[in-house]
Amino acid sequence: MAKGWLRALAGDPLLKSRVEIVGLVDLDRATAEALAREFGLTEATIDTDLPAMLEATQPQLVFDVVIPAARRAVVSAALAHGCHVLSEKPMATSLDEARDLLDLARKAGRIHAVVQNRRFISGVRRMKRLVESAAIGDLTAVHCDFFLAPHFGGFRDEMQNVLLLDMAIHTFDAARFVSGKVPLSVYCVETNPAGSWYVHGAAANAIFKLSDDAVFTYRGSWCAEGRRTSWESEWRLVGANGMLTWDGEAAFEVTVSGDEPGLLHGARSLPMPEVTDEAETQGHASVLLDFIRAIDTGSEPETIGHDNIKSLSMVFGAIESARTGLAVDLSAQGQNP
Fold first, then answer.
1. Which CATH number applies to 2-114?
2. pTM of the predicted structure, to 2 decimals
C-alpha cells in the first residue's frame, strides 16, 4: 500500500508540487531503503523508529500505512508531534480504540482521516448521483455481492475476521455513502469455508437495517475460486420506482417500470449520470487531494475520523453479531449520530 500512495503522489502534478516526502520509516530498514530507491527519494531520511523520525524531520503530516495492530501507536505518536494523519483502513482494531483516536485528534487540533479510496472512483460517485436525482424514487434497498479468491500471503492470512475487517469495510462505507442512510442494526453470519487458506472469517453474510425502512445486504467471500466479481462488488440499488445495477466495472443499467399490460409491466431504461468532477474519481490521488485541501482551508476531509467511525461501527457490529448469533443494535451503542 505504501507503493500505491507513493505512485499517487508522483502521478498527480498538484500533489507532486505540494507534498515532499522527508522520511520513510519501517521496522525493516532494508524495506524502507528499497522503497526510497524505487521512487527516487534520495533526500528522504530512513529510520526504524517513528518518534525519532518525527523529531528529526518535523513533518506536517504522516501517512500511516501499517498493519491494523500498529495503527494506534503510529497515529498517537504522529498526533503528539503535531502532525495531521492520513491512515490506511481500518481506522482501528476496536471501537474503543477508534474513539480514543478521535479524542487524541480533537485534543491535538489536527486532522485524522482514513483512506476509503473506493469512495473516490467513478462508479460509486455515479451511483450516488443517481440516488440523489430520485430517478428510481426513494431508495429502499442496497444489495452487494463480493466473491474473489486472492492469495495474498502475509498478515491477512493470519487475521481474525479477515473479510469483514480488511475488505468488507470498503463496501460498507460505499453503501453508507451512496445511500445516505444511517445503519441502525445488523445481523451477520460469518464462516471460514472449506478450502479457505485464511485462519478465520473468510466469508460473511450480513443484513443491515437502515434508516427510512431501507435495508443493505452483503454477501461476500475471499476464498471463492472460479468466476469472480469485481473488487468493488456487484451492486443492485432498489428504489420505489425502479432499479440500478452495476457490475463493479463498466456495466450500469438503470430501469424503471415499463407500460406492458398484464402481471409484469416490463422495464424502461434511463440514462446513467456521468461524473461531473474527474478530480473526485482518481482513487488514492483524490483522497490525498481532499486531505491536502482540508489542511489548506481548515475544512474537513470527506473521510475524517468522526465520519469513518460510522463505517467501522458497521464492521464491528457485524463481527459482534457473528460471534453471538444475535442482531446488534448499532444506534443503542452510540455509534450513530
1. 3.40.50.720
2. 0.88
